[in-house]
Write a structure and sequence with these properties.
Blueprint (H helix, E strand, L loop, with lengths): L2 H7 L4 H24 L6 H22 L4 H30 L19 H4 L1 H4 L11 E2 L2 E2 H29 L7
Antiparallel strand pairs: 1-2
């Protein structure tokens, strides 16, 4: 079996979707540990990046509900792509803000959620921002938290594009051998 077919079949199984949800949940729990355990206050952009990560977790859960359902799989793919692109866009902008800080801080003191979904009021322990966007107070292997988010969202987008591309190749070939 070619690698294209193998990758193309992954979304039809539950375990890859659950793995994606579990990885996103682990990253959310790590963020909460940084916030509450290490007392690193999240900024407005951190909260939005957290929402993008929750989108990845939700995409994994939607895909895992019924991986053989084309409708749910398409919804999961759409959420996966949207969350990856949004998270990468946010984290890249956040990184540029940290590398080239303005003279006056640009972060809002509180994230702006729609009136019908005031997450920062419903769950302030998770969605309220107290930090400053331009600050970077943690690093691992020489990369800041925001740089790690750029890496994570980039990988997520690359994997999504690969899986969707393999799905399309398999669908276009409809059972004919796909070159590996």
């Amino acid at each position: 079996m070619s690698i294209v077919i193998w990758i193309g079949r992954l979304p039809h199984q539950r375990w890859p979707w659950l793995t994606m949800a579990a990885v996103a949940l682990a990253l959310e729990l790590i963020a909460l540990y940084f916030q509450h355990g290490l007392k690193l206050d999240p900024c407005e952009l951190c909260i939005y990046e957290r929402c993008a990560m929750l989108g990845l977790m939700l995409a994994g859960l939607v895909g895992a509900i019924a991986p053989t359902s084309l409708l749910l799989r398409l919804g999961a793919f759409g959420l996966w792509l949207a969350s990856s692109v949004w998270g990468l866009w946010l984290s890249w902008g956040h990184l540029m803000l940290q590398l080239n800080p303005p003279l006056i801080p640009t972060c809002a003191s509180s994230p702006e959620f729609p009136a019908w979904l005031p997450l920062n009021q419903w769950l302030p322990w998770m969605f309220e921002a107290y930090g400053v966007c331009e600050e970077s107070s943690w690093a691992l292997a020489g990369l800041s938290m925001v740089q790690w988010l750029v890496v994570v969202f980039s990988i997520s987008l690359l994997v999504a594009a690969t899986v969707i591309g393999c799905q399309l190749l398999c669908w276009l070939n409809r059972g004919r051998p796909v070159a590996s």
